[in-house]
């Protein structure tokens, strides 16, 4: 059974048994599951479901050529001050390795571009591993090439910061294309700023003409103070969602 909770005046948080999602009704929806995050846009003329998937985000850890498997995962939501809410996804691995992804939402902002306001990924004890972000189910018809932040795929924008060692778009013959951004953690604690959203102006390919009001430290320029997604708070509703 779904539990619903309004974030400010414009966003609705829905808690399900295996996922959490935030939506701006009849505009955009971000679904945070145990292993992936998906973004949907609303199309009232679409046959069947009115929600169209425009991107799926995955975060992976690699130990050399071997993909690491989490021993446990936890989804939680926290209410912050002034109509702010976070959804966190924490994953535990062998050798005391942990990742924590935090999506921050501001229920006072009516622009769909700010769903979410920010997404940060923290990595604990990941030194010597590979942190990989992959984006699938994207609209891209070009060739395999290097990628540059921000990349725009129709109604989806992906932007990132830092010094990834790999930024590449892959085109395939029989499966959907994907964007890959990879980092090599150099210390016991690393934090990465990377975000997908529905931009104000739809585009195609690498559209550097768009001006985003979101900064990669997790702050939005038309507000006072900072929002780095790491503030402590009390759970909004009930407990978190655990599972592998």
Structure explained in plain terms:
The protein has about 240 residues and is an all-beta fold. It has one domain: Beta-galactosidase, Chain A, domain 5 (Distorted Sandwich), CATH 2.70.98. Helix content is about 0%, strand content about 50%. It has strands at about 5, 10-15, 20-25, 30-35, 35-40, 50-65, 65, 70-80, 85-95, 95-105, 120-125, 130-135, 145, 150-155, 155-160, 165-170, 180-185, 190-195, 205, 235, 240. Strands 1, 2, 3, 4, 5, 6, 7, 12, 13, 16 and 17 form an eleven-stranded antiparallel β-sheet that branches. The chain is globular and about 45 Å long. The two termini are about 20 Å apart. The model is unreliable at about 200-240 (pLDDT under 50).
Key descriptive features of the protein:
21 strands, ten-stranded antiparallel beta sheet, mainly beta, Beta-galactosidase, Chain A, domain 5, globular, 244 residues, 50% strand
